[in-house]
Amino acid sequence: MAMTAAEVLKMAKDNEVKFVDFRFADTKGKEQHVTVPVSHFDIDKFESGHAFDGSSIAGWKGIEASDMLLMPDPNTANIDPFMEETTLFMQCDVIEPSDGKGYDRDPRSIAKRAEAYLKSSGLGDTAYFGPEPEFFIFDDVRWGADMSGCFVKIGSEEASWSTGAKLEGGNTGHRPTVKGGYFPVPPVDSFQDMRSEMCLILESLGIPVEVHHHEVAGAGQNEIGTKFSTLVERADWTQNLKYVVWNVAHTYGKTATFMPKPIVGDNGSGMHVHQSVWKDGKNLFAGDGYAGLSEFALFYIGGIIKHAKALNAITNPGTNSYKRLVPGYEAPVKLAYSARNRSASIRIPHVANPKGRRIETRFPDPLANPYLCFSALLMAGLDGVQNKIHPGEAASKDLYHLPPEEDKLIPTVCASLEEALEALDKDREFLTRGGVFSDSMIDAYLDLKMQEVQRYRMTTHPIEFDMYYSV
After folding, report:
1. For the GS beta-grasp domain, which residue ranges apply (predicted)?
2. Over the stretch 286-307, which tens digit does the pLDDT of each residue have?
3. DSSP characters for 102-163?
């Protein structure tokens, strides 16, 4: 149900709201916020916005042009489930005061332009997205990196390495093995109640939950499956899902992370993204081709495969992302498509009803900014449709165990963030169509991410002592 500004003001009054929280995503996808007392919240906030300093956000404006406006979206209004004082929050667009348009580096404004581009192209009018972000919950995490050295230590009572630990109240011994978390009942799965609480809070925020379960990795890997929706709304929901997961874990005295590969030697966390494009109430992906797909859907897949390496810079935006995307470790690195075959990076899930026909892109991970991730996938897919890029034959074999001569014929995703950034720099035109992404935004993104590459490259790693100290 769409909400008006007047209805949000009534919602604030009816719930005796004390504060209103304006939230927006930075380039990396991290939500930022600013709070005003309800006494300073009126209809003018929806008409004139709330001013803030855009120069303090990494990758955004310089100090000489810092004034920006937050424009709250009344459709996103909710009561925050964690604040001590009753607080209403809304997602905002970042507006350029000089022309009243969405800021070209604001992720949510980019997502809105992607939806507008789809309509203006005449190819479709609605794109649906259904992400599946996985996450870990730990008891404790510590790290340090300075001139004296570096370390990371993860504490997890559920982890297999805790079988010998002396724990307060005793060690019960019930825990998943390495890669054994999918999905035994409690007490081996120790997160049932916590996930259930997360789900109830998500539903109270208007995000329909379809399933929750422990994931494959033994040390606290979990997943909550929520319903698909339109591009911008589904990105908003993904931001709220992360917020709920972090904060429920926090209230339990635990810590949650969406890092793709926090643990060496166990499964990493992906964010498979289901997609379909519709027009006039008809699913354009449904047809009589391979796995019930239309030619439109096959061309869409072709576009994603063609631009996959550039997409990696956005769908897999951390140096840590490429510790998950390693060939031979059941990661979706092979750029092929297949029905049910989970070794391909694009899967066509089996559905009984053609209305549910969709594709599942499996290489993205939950470090991705959802606004940028969904927009980039849509733009790549539409390029495939516009240029009739056929993806070739579907992959019927297990791509993890091909003979070397066959293996080398199938392209792969990038092996590092640096490779992905180089690919994005060279292959960006498909993103800039219709002004969805600007060149200046892509340049700023590349610069921001290269800083991460450089920092990572220059930091001595403990494993290097293991390999080289005595050589």
Report:
1. 15-100
2. 999 999 999 999 999 999 999 9
3. EPTT-HHHHHHHHHHHHHHHTS-SEEEEEEEEEEEEESEEEEEEETTEEEEEEE-TTSGGGT
Q: Is the pLDDT of residue 327 over 90?
A: no
Q: Name the average pLDDT for the chain.
A: 94
Q: Is residue 428 annotated as part of the catalytic site, yes or no?
A: no
Distance of CA 430 to the CA centre of its chain: 21
Contact 136, 259 (CB under 8 A): yes
Classify residue 171 by burial, with Cβ atoms within 10 Å: 0-12, 13-18, 19+: middle
Question: Pick the catalytic residue: 105, 362, 365, 383?
Answer: 362
Domain boundaries, the chain: 5-103, 126-469
pLDDT of residue 55: 85
For residue range 2-14, list pLDDT tens digits in order.
Answer: 799 999 999 999 9
* Rounded Cα–Cα distance for residues 158 and 274 (Å): 30
For 98, counting Cβ atoms within 10 Å of its Cβ (0-12 exposed, 13-18 middle, 19+ buried), the class is: exposed
C-alpha torsion angle, residues 382, 386, 387, 388 (rounded to 10)? 90
329 has pLDDT over 80: no
CATH class of 5-103: alpha beta
Catalytic residue among 33, 125, 139, 342, which? 342
Superfamily of domain 126-469: Glutamine synthetase/guanido kinase, catalytic domain (3.30.590.10)
Closest CA to 304 of 273, 281, 268, 279: 273
Please report, in range form, the residues annotated as the binding site for L-glutamate: 267-268, 324, 330, 342, 362
Q: Can you tell me the distance from the alpha carbon of 236 to that of 100, in angstroms, rounded to the nearest whole number?
A: 22
158 in catalytic set:
no
Binding positions are 132, 134, 210, 215, 223, 267-268, 272, 274-276, 324, 330, 342, 355, 360, 362
